[in-house]
Amino acid sequence: MKKFINHPDAVVREALVGLAAAHPDLRVDLDAPYVTRAEAPRAGKVGLVSGGGSGHEPMHAGFVGLGMLDAACPGEVFTSPVPDQILAASKAVDGGAGVVHIVKNYTGDVMNFQLAADLLGDDGIDVQTVLVNDDVAVEDSTWTAGRRGTGATMLVEKIAGALAETGADAAAVAAMGTRVNEASGSFAVALTACTTPAAGRPGFELPEDEMEVGVGIHGEPGRRREKLLPARDIAAMSLEAIMAAKPVASDEDVIVLMNGLGGTPLIELYLLYGEVAGMLEAAGVRIARNLVGNYVTSLDMAGMSLTVCRADAEMLRLWDAPVRTPALRWGA
Amino acid sequence: MKKFINHPDAVVREALVGLAAAHPDLRVDLDAPYVTRAEAPRAGKVGLVSGGGSGHEPMHAGFVGLGMLDAACPGEVFTSPVPDQILAASKAVDGGAGVVHIVKNYTGDVMNFQLAADLLGDDGIDVQTVLVNDDVAVEDSTWTAGRRGTGATMLVEKIAGALAETGADAAAVAAMGTRVNEASGSFAVALTACTTPAAGRPGFELPEDEMEVGVGIHGEPGRRREKLLPARDIAAMSLEAIMAAKPVASDEDVIVLMNGLGGTPLIELYLLYGEVAGMLEAAGVRIARNLVGNYVTSLDMAGMSLTVCRADAEMLRLWDAPVRTPALRWGA
Q1: What's this model's pTM, rounded to 2 decimal places?
Q2: Are residues B207 and B274 in the same domain?
Q3: Which of A266, A280, A291, A294 to mutate to test the interface with B (most CBs of B within 10 A)?
């Protein structure tokens, strides 16, 4: 598998050099490494910090900015950030009101964010943690105890980020993040594996007529492999899996994220979104807001994930609040 | 090659169904088909119309909205829209001030937009045409007489669209579009071919250690094939090709678009952008504005295109003006 890189070991650092060059609103510490808003810390504002392995871009660094994250800690590709890195990023954005860690449920991430939180606590900095575990495909996986954190992460970051912008305290921001996570379910289907720069070849082999149903964002196995189906059937099985785990009543409002895993063209994502929208409409569920695009990816994997979040009026108001980040921007 | 589709013949229509469901700000005529702003036409405003083969999403329908296009005409995948379609879209957005057609230089597009313009002229509607031919890789190609229109198209649409929003007349809007095109050069490199839904297999074969240098957005051949090089060398050869055809003096301002062709992860695009930014800085050229992402694509092709536009103060002011479209949004 060919890539636009110089050396597998330098990918994350060199991509951060590019991120810094492209976005003067951000400050990039190449050594830790972490990414913060240029003006961090802001006195009295809760610092919202997330992070995880690289390879899921634009998540997380692409969500740093007004109305969303204060800091992101990119690990090596598909590798958790280390505690020192999380510690440094958290301190860089602590404006005296404490920090909220948004952590996807992977064993390494959970452990390293916890270690960092302990160290921050020793320094008298209040840390609240939001654990994201929205992927309804599997109960446990090769990378996790419990459900994996995937597409809902960006909804948590957007909505909790908007609340943090209003001056809410750390407990309230974390409670909102947890509410969004609990209201969300995600399900992913892959048509191809992804290839990490270090490995240089696909993480698994998927025959030309098969798909991985319930795949994770590192290519970890899902529920089963089966013959490729029409998009309509894939949309239906994804939506059914989500609804079984996180039911939505007719007449409720939802936010829908039709997300690409990196190698799937937008024309296919819109086609899938059309299928999902038709099914939800038929069920009487209102799609109050939606996003279609590549937001939570798995390098070059051809695949999609669907996230449905049952949203109350407060969540929708926070969703609509101004946001200005590299990957998500409106009203600012 | 596997895709999220129902049937190859239905891809464009079903993706438009999804686009309509996702974006209530747009009105989608599924029969013509074309996409306009929901409130079109606006009396007294020049109607900005573009279009071309599908498969380059988000271009063009993803650029319909405030501050950018009034209408887009999607053809079948890699197939020009037909004259009737362009005619209907143009009439739908003509608010009495005429229309401007933004046409990428491909033989079919040029012919069909010209036929539509003739018919509009017969109906007394003033049509100005901006021909986009920014791709410096080849002088002629399998799809064109003259240079191909690629990445600069979105810069033309953004900047001319912002001018149209101020109430400028058709001649002024078209002149600005032409200025942006003349100030822009693009160059693309592919690591893989793309696969159209109808063909079901890659349009060409590229060995595992080779790249296509100067590729077109339909996978048409470029300057040469050669062994894969490090990203730094690819960035350098792309920038040199552009600078040779469209020189930029040191101390001039440019807009840089580091564009993905659909199958390349964002982490690689940022890495490439970092290389380009370093080289331009070393040359004393100021990157006044930039975009990094998938904007002008070639289905699932792994590849990138670089566009450099020499920008004066007026272009930069128009670039910064509010835009609200599915794929580009700020200040609104």
Answers
A1: 0.98
A2: yes
A3: A266
